[in-house]
């Protein structure tokens, strides 16, 4: 009897070891932006896992890898499988809300985000996404309310503060937005903020300042994909198409979804 228990324990220990190794490999693939590798690893992990909480996590990460690869229909299925495994996972609701928003289904996006916030009413990611949805629906007061709500429990949240600056920018108050970014950068000179101010300079057609800021953002964090998109927009505006297209490629290589750059990449089609 003891021999059988020993063999069973050894088998379970080995299984847990290999599962941990597979998880580590999957995480490393995601960190390196090797989303094809991540897709393969998380598929194996999700198929083998029997504990629903962990299976949900793997399906959720699988959906994100597929999303990065532009495989939107299967990403939806993976996220839905994640939700089925764990209906109380706030991160899955956040991803489904974000993906539905990206694909233009604002009603479905709000449905998932509202349900997710019932589970976690201090989830900054969901408030940020819902703010974007409200703004796209023309409900700017609700968009601003969600950003300010984040600041009630996370007063230093950089995304909420830049979100408020960006609301000013999109409402045409470029000087007000620039003032906010100057204040933020005086407190914390981060890549996100330099990139945000670069976009304001771009809107003001101050290309020299925009390029200086976006290059600063890249020097601080070479893996911040949004900076390469902003740089491409500056380069397109200054008739440097070849350099702009190279910057778009860099954005995708560092994790930006290519499907979200269809309009920009259309300018790179060889004539």
Q: What do these coordinates show?
A:
With 271 residues, the chain is mostly helical. It has 15 helices and no strands. The protein has helices spanning 2-31, 35-48, 52-68, 72-85, 90-102, 106-119, 124-136, 140-153, 158-170, 174-187, 191-203, 207-220, 225-237, 241-253, 262-266. α13 runs antiparallel to α14 (241-253). The model has no long low-confidence stretch (mean pLDDT 91).
Short characterization:
The chain is mainly α. 79% of the residues lie in helices and 0% in strands.
List the helices and strands and how they pair.
Elements: H1 2-31, H2 35-48, H3 52-68, H4 72-85, H5 90-102, H6 106-119, H7 124-136, H8 140-153, H9 158-170, H10 174-187, H11 191-203, H12 207-220, H13 225-237, H14 241-253, H15 262-266
Helix pairs in contact: 1-2, 2-3, 3-4, 4-5, 5-6, 5-7, 6-7, 7-8, 8-9, 9-10, 10-11, 11-12, 11-13, 12-13, 13-14
